[in-house]
Design a protein that fits this description.
The chain is of the alpha+beta class and about 375 residues long. It folds into three domains: about 130 residues, Uridine Diphospho-n-acetylenolpyruvylglucosamine Reductase, domain 3, CATH 3.30.465; about 80 residues, Alpha-Beta Plaits; about 70 residues, ACT domain (Alpha-Beta Plaits, 2-Layer Sandwich), CATH 3.30.70.260. It is about 30% helix and about 25% strand. A five-stranded antiparallel sheet has the order 4-5-9-7-8. Strands 12-13-11-14 form a four-stranded antiparallel sheet.
Amino acid sequence: MAVHRPDSGEALAGIVAECVEARRPMAIRGAGTTDIVIDAETVIDIAAHRGIVDYDPEELIVAARSGTPLAEIEALLASRQQMLAFDPVDPKAISGGAPGGATIGGIVASGNAGPRRVSAGAARDHLLGFTAISGRGEPFKAGGRVVKNVTGFDLAKLFAGSWGTLGVLDTVTLRVVPAPRFEATLIVPCDCVEAGRIMAAGLRHAAAVSCAAWSDGRALFRIDGFRPSVDARFDQLARMVGRPAERADGDGSKRLWNAVRTVEAIPATAALWRVGLPTTRGAAFAEAMAGEGFRVLIDWGGARVWLGGADDGDAGAEMVHQRAATSGGQARLVRASPAVRARAAPPPPDAVTAMLHRRLREAFDPHGLFNPGLDPWER
């Protein structure tokens, strides 16, 4: 297997063009923080293709090469009291390893988003533009560096979450937001069904909750902004909940939400499932799966449920997929031993969905060379 480590956009385009001409399948790899194995003759490792190419704090944009570490971008933004609104997390922390090195290209390609997604949106909502190399070996550009950009089809929405199957990202331009000056978390002891009701009410409340989750028998609500505003909104939300509750401020609040982001409530030895659901069905689904012996964490106010189960057999794949589909959602196994992963293949999509996926990939990668065998819409 040949491994290429381009350190510039020109080198990246040249490698892709050579592989296209020779019809060699390519596995696209960032920092290798996500547990994905692609069977391909050539690996394109973008980790050396790094660096900030533009940062305009006044215009609230940052542009970087795809191999730039997320930590480097976050440190730069923090120096100006800014942040990425979609709250990305290093996937290695979720996969059971030590975090470090996740690339911004990998974050965008995977559609990575943390607890703030419920209020701030997903990675695709903050991707203003990008440059990439297509499956024809051709560099191309989409979007721009401003929020108001309505020229043509919104490819940014398409590429975020495509897992490198439509093209290799060269650079990405992201919108940034001011970081909150202060935060507090309302902690409400309750079961997951009651949490579903409380979270729905909390997200509708004028307190402007930025995150809502349930973990270890507690519903959590984050409120952030200027201290006087946070205090007033916190009190309003506490009165609405109308039951005994606790408060965590500042760093204590941040520690709670970092535990949610990295799914600390589920042991690192467990097989880990991520399930996307309609918000109103998350709590009921979580309760049902807890009754089947799974460890459960609810995020995004109910729209995302993490399940931890035994890392043997197929990790309960048939049950998880069936229950998720019945609840209007979709499940993906994100952490498991290789033997379990091999037995836990997702069910095939319906004929219409499969056709749309196939045509979309053919439009950008007509020879099927990028990350062969990977269906991003099942992740």
